[in-house]
Design brief:
single chain; alpha/beta; Rossmann fold; 9 helices; 8 strands; binds S-adenosylmethionine
Length: 251
């Protein structure tokens, strides 16, 4: 399978961070495009918490989540079973080689994947292939140039810089958010429309625990300590900039 070097990995801290997400908190821009009976593909569904919201919105339409990680597919499947959802399934696959025929879906969604990809246009082209003519895509990624954190202590600035450099070295691009319209248009989509929003981390440990866990795993304890010390400051504030893009496949 054609995989990426995914920076955040799939440990318990990362799962705790991802399962907080719902369609309403993180994918609300896409809700107006979902109708009962639609078939939807969620690319890189992770533990599937947003995917479950999509499946509820389009029921009885069928929703499939794909992820390159077998552990995520197993987790998404188990969580959907526990939630008693019958119109939702998960498959192990790369976004570059979707295991579906041309024109299979009414809609494609992807949250927090494209910033990790070395060839996002190729991924978008593959999404275009599996969409029906006239179908809609919704893609969301962060843009680190829009992040706000305060106070900007030198150690915190260095840790944030190092995280961004690592993700970029791994083949991703931490400034993908602003490029989404260009990426989807280059892949052949039309009518690309972008929006931005902020996610406020309250408490800030929601994000600092995730990043500190990354540095501990990577053998960079000084950056992990800096993040944990910064999070203890009473005035600590951290907001993540998310950019979404909705576009269509030509009829
Ligand atoms: C940050 S998580 C996002 C999960 C979920 N969409 C969410 O926002 O909660 C990114 C996911 O992308 C998956 N991933 C990374 N590269 C991929 C690829 N080339 N094809 C399919 N999945 C990929 C990872 O396994 C991981 O589960």
């Amino acid at each position: 399978m054609d995989k990426e070097n995914y920076t955040l990995r799939w440990d318990e801290t990362a799962m705790k961070f991802l399962v907080r997400r719902t369609l309403f908190t993180h994918g609300s821009f896409f809700i107006p495009h979902l109708q009962p009976g639609m078939s939807v593909l969620d690319c890189a569904s992770g533990p599937g918490s947003i995917t479950q919201g999509i499946a509820r919105a389009v029921a009885p339409g069928a929703v499939v989540g794909i992820d390159m990680s077998a552990s995520q597919v197993a987790l998404g499947t188990e969580r959907a079973r526990t939630a008693g959802m019958s119109n939702l399934s998960f498959r192990e696959a790369s976004v570059y080689e979707l295991p579906f025929a041309d024109a299979s879906f009414d809609a494609v969604f992807s949250h927090a994947l494209f910033e990790h990809l070395s060839d996002p246009v190729r991924a978008a082209r593959e999404c275009l292939r599996v969409l029906k003519p006239g179908g809609v895509i919704g893609v969301v990624t962060p843009d680190w140039d829009g992040f706000i954190f305060s106070p900007e202590t030198p150690a915190m600035v260095a840790a944030a810089r190092e995280y961004q450099d690592t993700q970029n070295r791994n083949g991703g691009d931490v400034r993908t958010g602003r490029k989404l319209g260009a990426i989807l248009t280059a892949a052949g989509f039309v009518e690309a429309r972008m929006q931005a929003r902020y996610e406020n981390f309250e408490p800030v440990t929601i994000i600092t625990d995730l990043l500190a866990g990354h540095f501990e795993r990577e053998g960079q304890p000084e950056h992990a300590a800096a993040l944990r010390e910064w999070a203890d400051l009473p005035e600590a504030f951290f907001a993540e900039a998310w950019v979404s893009c909705v576009a269509r496949k030509r009829d």
